Amino acid sequence: MQWQGVVVALVCLVVTALVSRYVRRAIERRQARKRQASLPAASRQVRRAAERKRKA
User: Fold this and answer.
1) Does the predicted model carry a pTM greater than 0.85?
2) pLDDT digits 0-9 by tens, 7-50
3) Between 20 and 30 A from 56 (CA), which of 1, 4, 5, 25?
4) Transmembrane stretches, by residue range (predicted)?
C-alpha cells in the first residue's frame, strides 16, 4: 500500500514541526532570561511590574 508511506511522511513532518517549534521557544526563553539577568535589578523590577499589569 502506497498511502501508508504518505501517512508516515506526514506524521514525520508534523513531529518535526512541533519539535522545532518547542526548541525555538526554549532557546528564546533562555536568551530572554540572559538578557534580563544582565539588566540592573531596579529595571528588572520595573519590567516585572509592567508585565504584571499587562497580565491583570
Assistant:
1) no
2) 999 999 999 999 999 999 999 999 988 887 777 767 777 778 88
3) 25
4) 6-23
What are phi and psi for residue 26, nearest 5 degrees? -65, -40
Residue bearing cell 544582565: 38
pLDDT 10s digits, 41-54: 677 777 788 888 88
Dist. CA 18–CA 14, nearest whole Å: 6
Q: First-to-last CA distance in the chain?
A: 55
Confidence of residue 4 (pLDDT cuts 50, 70, 90): very high
Kindly compute the dihedral angle of the four CA atoms of residues 42, 30, 32, 37, in this order, to the nearest 10 degrees: 20
